[in-house]
Each structure stands twice: as structure tokens, then as C-alpha cells.
């Protein structure tokens, strides 16, 4: 008996080009073993007719619980102007109201929607640690365990990004909305990270759950706290993620406390390196973007959230010039990884008043050789995998067999040929085109449907009813 399984779509993405007559094979551990054009291999592979096969999307920045405020913040709460900071108060209302069971149900809803959108890996930036009044649960890792369980029930690969939060901000009084997030002592935080690692290794022996760390931001932890967590992560080889310069107010506070904006401060303190990911990095200078690139750091942009919150436009033209950019669904206002990818480019078009701003090769009037679609797709896949230290996001031997297929006759793609297909997918794909999704060689979405969907949706609907029915 051969333990390999093979799949043969009409087209398969290799690098940034589609090829036909190629089958993908994976072994029983869920790793890609080879791509083959041998007639005997093509004959025994499972046919995926009328479909193109691509590496699964990597969602590098998610707060699953924020799914509950979708559609509940699109109004003005102040007579003057609504901002990120007013939105945040609503988000805190939800963060403090959810029970552990509801956090689990919400994570399942969120992860289910991700699977249906072609996401195979999620990096959950997890900062809901305690009970609503700030008291740790008897099992301090309870909520981490529920998030990991939710991801694996749905079938996603998870990086649990354990997040440290110690204070409201420089010279700011404690905010009751943040009690659930707070672990004041960095040594305790590190012990909690180790407990999560032990749980992940013990409960998910296939390696589908790993752990990373995130000092939340230089607002929420002091520089000293950041350094303790960062040096622990460096010793352990764990990725370090942090919210950086999402808001100008955050920059102003950092200048007030340390005399420098966050990226400049991090560069000075040795905080930038190739395992570091700056989330957002919207309000940075050209010199700061150069420092991020020189250090080999990744910037994770979340354009669908950043536009919803009015954060600003990330300078992908600076950052992708020899640098790495991942993508995240962040607030879950939309779960559409290729919408995030295309907005990297579209936001620059609106601000620069020009087209194809991020194209690699000028003067080549062809969508494939321009390199634009491939570059944006790499942000949604390979770059995300890199910043989570995972071997996924590409269809190559040794990588995880995480992939999805799209229906070539879907109205959003109909008429595309081999040359135009990747640009068609990156700029125009609708979720209706997504047919099959596999994680580690196991199929989790079949013909656009997930087996758990009815139960997950019903459970989440009940959560929303309880949360928002104020009588
Ligand atoms: Zn975030």
C-alpha cells in the first residue's frame, strides 16, 4: 500500500505561474512529497476537474473574539468624530462580556469562516486570558486551550500568539475594559507561554498547533517588559509579534515616554530581527521602513480592518521593496485574505493616483510577468508562513500539504486563461469560487461546504442573541 495521496487539478500554482498536467502528492504525515508530471502518477491522482489548486492562505493576525462586534460599530458614538479609540470601547464591551464557552463558540465561527475563505493557517493574537474581573481561571491556560481546540475542531493550523498586556498606557490610569488582558509580571507571562507550549505539544502531536509570543504594543507593555519577553523568545526560537504604529496617538505616547517612535525605539534597543513582526506599521517613516527591511523583520498589514478603523494606509511600496509583508484579518470585519492582498495595492492607487504601484517589472504589458499578482499572493501565503515560522504557504516538497482549489467556471473567474488566472484570483475572486480546502493533507472543506457549519452557526447565533439583547 502506498501511503502517498495525489491530487490532479486542471492548473496548479508553482511559484507565481500556473502549470497544467501536474499532480501534487503528500504523505500520511501531511507533507508534500513531490509534484509529478509522470503519466502513471497523473493516472492514480484524485482528479479535481475544472479547478485550480493554490497554497492555502496564512492569516497572520487575528483576534477571533472580535467577530462578535461585526456590524455593531458602524455608527457615530460621538458628536464630533468617531475613531479607533471609540470603536475600542465597544470592542472592550464584548471582550468583558463573553464566557469561556462563548469565546470557544465565537472562535469556531471565526475559524469556520476562515476555512471557507481559503485560509489554512491562523495566527491568533490572543490576549483574553482571565475572567472578566481580571481573576485568573483555576487553569490559567483555559482560554488558550479553548482557542486551540476551536481551531483544530474546524481543522485549521494554529499559531497561538500568546499576548502580554500589562497596562493601559504611559501615564494612563487602569482601564476596567482591559482587566481580562493583564498579566503584570513578565515572569508569570513566560510561565503561561510555557504552559501553552506544553499543552500544544501534548494535545496536538501532529504539530498543527504551535506557540509564538506578542508583547501587545509599546503602549500596553513597558520597554523593560518587552525586552524580557523578547529575549526569552529569542532563546526559544519563537516568533515575536507586536502592534506597532497603528495610530498616531500611540506614536505620540511613545515619544513622550521614550523620546522616539516605536520602530525607532525598537531599532535602537535591538528589538528588530528576522523573527520580529510589526503588526500594522501604518504611521512609520521611510527610514523606519528601511530599518524594518534591513533587520529582516516582517510587517503584517490588515488593510480591511485598517480602512474600517480609519487607521491609515500602509506603505507597501516602501515595505515590499526587498521586504516581507504578511496579512491579517485582525478585527474580522471581513474575512477575505485576497481582499486584504488587493487592498495593499488599491490603497496606494488611491493615494498615489496611479496604477500597478507594486508591479515588479515596468514596461511589460502582461499581468503575469508584471509580477504584481504573484507578489500580492505571496503576502497572503509565504510571507505569512515565514513570520509564523511555519513550513507552509507554498506547493513544494517538504511543505505542509495546505491548499485550496477554485472553480474555474465561477462567475468571478470565468474566461481566465493560464496567463491571467492568478491576477484574476488576486483581484477578483469571490468566495463562491472556493471549492476544496485541505490542511496537512486532510480535507476540511468539501465543494464549498464545511461539515460543522450548521452547528457552529447555530451556536454562534445564540451567543450573539445573548450578548446584544439588552432588555
Ligand atoms: Zn490586532
Notes on the structure:
The chain is α/β, with parallel strands linked by helices and 471 residues long. The protein has a domain at 5-55 and 395-453: Urease, subunit C, domain 1. It has helices spanning 39-44, 84-97, 100-116, 142-154, 186-203, 223-236, 248-258, 262-268, 286-295, 303-309, 316-319, 337-352, 372-380, 382-387, 421-428, 453-468; strands at residues 5-14, 17-19, 23-26, 32-36, 46-55, 57-62, 119-126, 157-164, 209-215, 240-244, 276-280, 298-301, 324-327, 403-407, 434-439, 442-445. The strands form 3 sheets. Strands 1, 2, 3, 4, 5, 14, 15 and 16 form an 8-stranded mixed sheet that branches. The chain has a 4-stranded parallel sheet with strand order 6-7-8-9. It has a 4-stranded parallel sheet with strand order 10-11-12-13. α5 packs parallel to α6 (223-236). The longest helix has 18 residues, at 186-203. The chain is globular and about 70 Å long. The chain binds zinc ion. The site of zinc ion has 6 residues, from loops. Zinc ion binds next to loops.
Multimeric organization: single chain
**What is the radius of gyration computed over CA atoms, rounded to a whole number of angstroms?**
22 Å
The top-level CATH class of the domain at 5-55 and 395-453 is Mainly Beta
Categorize the overall geometry: globular
Q: How many beta-strand segments?
A: 16
Beta-strand content: 15-25%
Q: Report the average pLDDT across residues.
A: 95
Q: Could you give me the name of the CATH homologous superfamily of the domain at 5-55 and 395-453?
A: Urease, subunit C, domain 1
Number of helices: 16
Low-confidence stretches: none
Query: Major sheet, described briefly?
Result: 8 strands, mixed
Helical residue percent band: 25-40%
Bound molecules: zinc ion
Q: Gap between N and C termini, in Å?
A: 62 Å
CATH architecture verdict of the domain at 5-55 and 395-453: Roll
What CATH calls the topology of the domain at 5-55 and 395-453 is Urease, subunit C, domain 1
Structural class computed from helices and strand pairing: alpha/beta
Amino acid at each position: 500500500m502506498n501511503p502517498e495521496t495525489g491530487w490532479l487539478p486542471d492548473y496548479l500554482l508553482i511559484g507565481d505561474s500556473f502549470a497544467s498536467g501536474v499532480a501534487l502528492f503528500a504523505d500520511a504525515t501531511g507533507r508534500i512529497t513531490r509534484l509529478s508530471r509522470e503519466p502513471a502518477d497523473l493516472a492514480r491522482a484524485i482528479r479535481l476537474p475544472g479547478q485550480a489548486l493554490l497554497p492555502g492562505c496564512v492569516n497572520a493576525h487575528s483576534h477571533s473574539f472580535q467577530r462578535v462586534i461585526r456590524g455593531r460599530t458602524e455608527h457615530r458614538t460621538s458628536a464630533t468624530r468617531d475613531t479607533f479609540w471609540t470603536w475600542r470601547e465597544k470592542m472592550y464591551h464584548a471582550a468583558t462580556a463573553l464566557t469561556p464557552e462563548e469565546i470557544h463558540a465565537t472562535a469556531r465561527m471565526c475559524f469556520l469562516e476562515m476555512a471557507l475563505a481559503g485560509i489554512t493557517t491562523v495566527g491568533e493574537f490572543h490576549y483574553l486570558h482571565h475572567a472578566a474581573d481580571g481573576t485568573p481561571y483555576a487553569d490559567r491556560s483555559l482560554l488558550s486551550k479553548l482557542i486551540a481546540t476551536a481551531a483544530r475542531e474546524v481543522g485549521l493550523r494554529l499559531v497561538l500568539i500568546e499576548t502580554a498586556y500589562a497596562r493601559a498606557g504611559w501615564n494612563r490610569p487602569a482601564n476596567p475594559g482591559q482587566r481580562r488582558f493583564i498579566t503584570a509580571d513578565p515572569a508569570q507571562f513566560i510561565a503561561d507561554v510555557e504552559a501553552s507550549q506544553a499543552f500544544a505539544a501534548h494535545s496536538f502531536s501532529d504539530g498543527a498547533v504551535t506557540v509564538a509570543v506578542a508583547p501587545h504594543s509599546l503602549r500596553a507593555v513597558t520597554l523593560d517588559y518587552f525586552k524580557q519577553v523578547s529575549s526569552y523568545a529569542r532563546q526559544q526560537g519563537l516568533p515575536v509579534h507586536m502592534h506597532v504604529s497603528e495610530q498616531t496617538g500611540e506614536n505620540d505616547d511613545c515619544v513622550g515616554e521614550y523620546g522616539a517612535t516605536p520602530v525607532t525605539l525598537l531599532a535602537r534597543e535591538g528589538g528588530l530581527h528576522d523573527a520580529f513582526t510589526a503588526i500594522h506599521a501604518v504611521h512609520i517613516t521611510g527610514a523606519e521602513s528601511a530599518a524594518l527591511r534591513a533587520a529582516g523583520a516582517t510587517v503584517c498589514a490588515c488593510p480591511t480592518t485598517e480602512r474600517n478603523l480609519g487607521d491609515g494606509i500602509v506603505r507597501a511600496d516602501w515595505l515590499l521593496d526587498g521586504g516581507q509583508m504578511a496579512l491579517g484579518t485582525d478585527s474580522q470585519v471581513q474575512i477575505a485574505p485576497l481582499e486584504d492582498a488587493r487592498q495593499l495595492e488599491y490603497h496606494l492607487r488611491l493615494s498615489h493616483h496611479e496604477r500597478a504601484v507594486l508591479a515588479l517589472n515596468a514596461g511589460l504589458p502582461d499581468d503575469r510577468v508584471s509580477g504584481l499578482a504573484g507578489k500580492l499572493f505571496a503576502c497572503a501565503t509565504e510571507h505569512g508562513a515565514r513570520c509564523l515560522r511555519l513550513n507552509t504557504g507554498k506547493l513544494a516538497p517538504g511543505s505542509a500539504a495546505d491548499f485550496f482549489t477554485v472553480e474555474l467556471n465561477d462567475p468571478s473567474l470565468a474566461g481566465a486563461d493560464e496567463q491571467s488566472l492568478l491576477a484574476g484570483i488576486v483581484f477578483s475572486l469571490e468566495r463562491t469560487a472556493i471549492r476544496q480546502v485541505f490542511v496537512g493533507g486532510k480535507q476540511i472543506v468539501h465543494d464549498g461546504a464545511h461539515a460543522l457549519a450548521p452547528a457552529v452557526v447555530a451556536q454562534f447565533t445564540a451567543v450573539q442573541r445573548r450578548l446584544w439583547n439588552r432588555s
